[in-house]
Write a structure and sequence with these properties.
Blueprint (H helix, E strand, L loop, with lengths): L8 H8 L3 H9 L6 H14 L5 H7 L6 E6 L6 H17 L5 E6 L4 H13 L4 E4 L4 H14 L2 E5 L10 E4 L2 H13 L6 E7 L11 H14 L4 E7 L4 H14 L6 E4 L5 H9 L6 E5 L3 H9 L4 E4 L2 H18 L7 E3 L3 E3 L9
Parallel strand pairs: 1-2, 1-3, 3-4, 4-5, 5-11, 6-7, 6-8, 8-9, 9-10
Antiparallel strand pairs: 10-12
Helix pairs in contact: 1-2, 1-3, 5-13, 8-9
Length: 352
């Protein structure tokens, strides 16, 4: 098209060989459109340089939008605090479009708390949901209800991979587990590795790092098939029980050099034990930037952290949801994987 020519939706429809309604559904990612028609419309839009009249669409729309974020509860200094900071940034962004963003929190160790949070989110009559899932079955039940009500939703931090969500913002979970195993073993002659896991809800419904653990175990099976992998469960709320469990682990294994991994943000619980017992012979790999993890890296009780900017993930999800709801802006990717940053004692102070 010549510069200055205004392309209309009629021209896009005519050149694509579809109706105006089909073009509109493609632009706003609504309704059923065949992959062939969608691809052709997007190809024509790019070729013609069509741009929808955003401001006219906004003025014509009478719909009030609201975004609800569902995340675990947290205390100061914990992993989800950084996510909440990203939500605050996202709230400011959405406010510029007149879209309120509220947060509903739940106890990540209690499935009933998650159910209540989902019910509270629905009571807000949202048009968009951003969710950090912990309980697989309950999350599936919830998102099926969202689909029934026509409410768009995105995942942050982790996702249900077999679900038809709008978008995901977070680490590639399987690959992060694979990376963790590679960093832990580092080509060494290893006899055994320990996975420290959180004892979560009593019914075993919450397992947010299962995909990460699968990647780790697949690496071990592929490169170290003779190496034993032992799962050790700890209660993060009971310091004495943690020490008793890790004492037993060390007493049952006379090898002073132990290879330890933990797939959530609480590797500092292991570091606290190693510090208290003055054990400096272990190789330890964990995840996520919280101050207690960073302190453990500086002191040498954790060798490597695999880090992510969870605040950026939350902000990206809210801004994408806002633009999708209001402007019909289609995301170029469904899975928006964020980088996996490798931190050690020499670079951890320069990450944030």
């Amino acid at each position: 098209m010549k510069q200055g020519n205004k392309v209309t939706i009629n021209e896009v429809a005519k050149m694509s060989g579809v109706s105006k309604g089909t073009v509109d559904r493609v632009l706003h990612n609504r309704g059923e459109v065949s992959e062939k028609s969608r691809a052709r419309v997007l190809e024509v839009i790019q070729e013609l340089g069509y741009r929808p009249n955003i401001y006219a669409s906004l003025l014509a729309s009478k719909k009030n939008h609201k975004i609800v974020c569902i995340i675990p509860e947290f205390s100061a200094g914990e992993f989800w605090e950084l996510t909440d900071m990203g939500i605050t940034r996202g709230r400011d962004f959405a406010a510029g479009y007149g879209v309120p963003v509220i947060t509903v929190q739940y106890d990540q160790y209690e499935v009933e708390s998650f159910r209540r949070a989902c019910a509270a989110a629905l009571d807000e009559n949202p048009t968009g949901i951003i969710i950090a899932p912990m309980f697989r079955i309950e999350t599936l039940n919830f998102v099926n209800e969202l689909k029934h009500r026509g409410i768009a939703y995105m995942y942050i931090d982790s996702r249900l991979e077999d679900d038809d969500y709008l978008a995901y913002f977070g680490m590639p979970m399987y690959q992060s587990g694979y990376l963790c195993a590679d960093l832990l073993t580092d080509g060494r002659d290893i006899r055994k590795v320990y996975i420290i896991r959180i004892a979560r809800d009593k019914k075993g419904l919450s397992d947010p790092t299962v995909t990460r653990r699968t990647g780790f175990c697949d690496y071990m099976n592929g490169y170290y098939p003779e190496v034993a992998v032992e799962n050790v469960f700890i209660d993060p709320k009971d310091r004495k029980a943690i020490f008793d469990r890790l004492d037993a682990m060390f007493e049952n294994d006379p090898d002073p050099l132990k290879y330890i991994a933990m797939f959530n943000s609480r590797i500092y619980l292991v570091a606290d034990y190693l510090r208290e017992r003055n054990i400096t012979t272990c190789r330890v790999v964990g995840f996520d930037v919280v101050e207690r993890n960073l302190a453990a890296v500086r002191e040498g009780f954790v060798q490597i952290l695999i880090a992510q900017h969870s605040d950026g993930q939350a902000f990206a999800a809210i801004s994408a949801m806002t633009e999708w709801l209001l402007l019909g802006k289609v995301l170029p990717k469904k899975d928006n994987f964020t980088q996996m940053d490798i931190l050690n004692r020499y670079n951890c102070d320069y990450y944030m």
